[in-house]
Amino acid sequence: MIDQEMKKAVLDNFEKVFGSNDNVKAYFAPGRVNLIGEHTDYNGGHVFPCALTIGTYGAAARRNDRKMRFYSVNQDRLGVVETSLDDLNPSDKAGWTNYPKGVVWAFEKRGMRLDTGFDMVIYGNIPNGSGLSSSASLEVLTGFILRDIYGFDTTNQDLALIGQYSENNYNGCNCGIMDQFAVAMGREGSAIFLDTADLSFEYAPIKLDGAKIIIANTNKKHKLTDSQYNARRSTCEAALAILKKSLDIKSLGDLTIEEFEKNKHLLEDPDMQKKAKHAVYENQRTIQAVKALKDGDINRFGELMRQSHESLRDDYDVTGVELDTLAEEAWKIPGVIGSRMTGGGFGGCTVSIVRDEAIEEFKKTVGENYKKKIGYDATFYTVEIGGGPEVI
Ligand code: GLA
């Protein structure tokens, strides 16, 4: 569902900032929300995200020289950020443009070299730093634009992998594949049941009769590189290395709950054991949740969402008082089918499935109790599941 005003604004800004609209095209890439399967994507486990109808709008045109010029309507005070294909190094000064630059760099690493530069304007309606993948959206948008204007031969799945590669190696966040995959492969009305061990996936239609997906933003800013995200990943890798000495596994996602329980004593560090436990249990929960959905048992799905949050709070330790307050207040409200933190954690958003008749009460009561405890407001959005990137 393309927002025509956003499209118009991105094109108008292109003309205003770069002086001409010749050869310019407009594009869109979505944000994403993960319904269940958190911190499993770098552990060879399953995830269940969906693309959203909010995302990043872009306008771009090829140039005749090697310059790249970027402008963000959201960060207009930075003005035009100019660089060149001969300067593909990340820098603090480059700010948000490190994301598109990183994608250009990653294309070149794969042998897809740009002979000329481009001008690009972006305008997003994903709240920044909300954990709804504004960065993955921008990465996939950039890849999609490069493919379109230079005619590179890549699939959408490649665009996801290129985006992740640039995020890992250019922007310093050791993220998994979930976000870029959900953005690049999104399908309207469906979530993506993805096995991150081999990237096999299936689309699962989400038909919520009489209920909606509501995102609640803690409005606590987080940045994954600053947070303990990379540290969690290292702990899981260390646990895997220990377990591999005795077990024939490739990832924590290979373990069933029974196998984990039988072998967890091998992880002598109690903290490491808890982190590995989350990775194993969350993967199994995700498989069960998708099964429940297919069986039409939405209440079971909701119960598993709650267990997911509890595990992220108690074992994986990535929630914090803001996310806990939103989720715990939501669970108290009749008509809330399920509620949990979504994304990397430490701030950002919760995702809840709420019956239509309970939505007002949910926003009011959770909102009031959040403000009472945390001191500032949470923000609520009712979201729709959208499709992948497109020319608009
Ligand atoms: C962030 C990362 C993803 C994933 C989630 C946690 O969103 O970018 O790769 O690890 O956190 O599930």
Q: What is this entry, summarized?
A:
By secondary structure, this protein is of the alpha+beta class. The protein has eleven helices and 13 strands.
Question: What do you see in this structure?
Answer:
It is built from eleven helices and 13 strands. It has 392 residues and is an alpha+beta fold. It has a domain at 4-197: Ribosomal Protein S5, domain 2 (2-Layer Sandwich), CATH 3.30.230.10. The protein has a six-stranded mixed β-sheet with strand order 5-4-6-3-1-13, sandwiched between helices. The protein has a four-stranded antiparallel β-sheet with strand order 10-11-9-12. 48% of the residues are buried. The structure holds alpha-D-galactopyranose. Alpha-D-galactopyranose is lined by residues 38-39, 41-42, 175-176, 178-179, 343-344. Alpha-D-galactopyranose binds at residues 38-39, 41-42, 175-176, 178-179, 343-344.
Shape: globular
CATH topology of the domain at 4-197: Ribosomal Protein S5, domain 2
Q: Which cofactors or ions or other ligands sit in this model?
A: alpha-D-galactopyranose
Unreliable spans = none
Q: Span from first to last CA? A: 10 Å
Helix percent reads 40-55%
Largest sheet: 6 strands, mixed
Question: What is the CATH class name of the domain at 4-197?
Answer: Alpha Beta
SS field, number of helical segments: 11
Strand content: 15-25%
Q: Could you give the count of β-strands?
A: 13
Series of H and E elements: HEEEEEHEHHHEEEHHHHHEEHEE
SS content category: alpha+beta
Q: Using the CA coordinates, give the radius of gyration.
A: 21 Å
Average pLDDT, all residues: 96
CATH architecture of the domain at 4-197: 2-Layer Sandwich
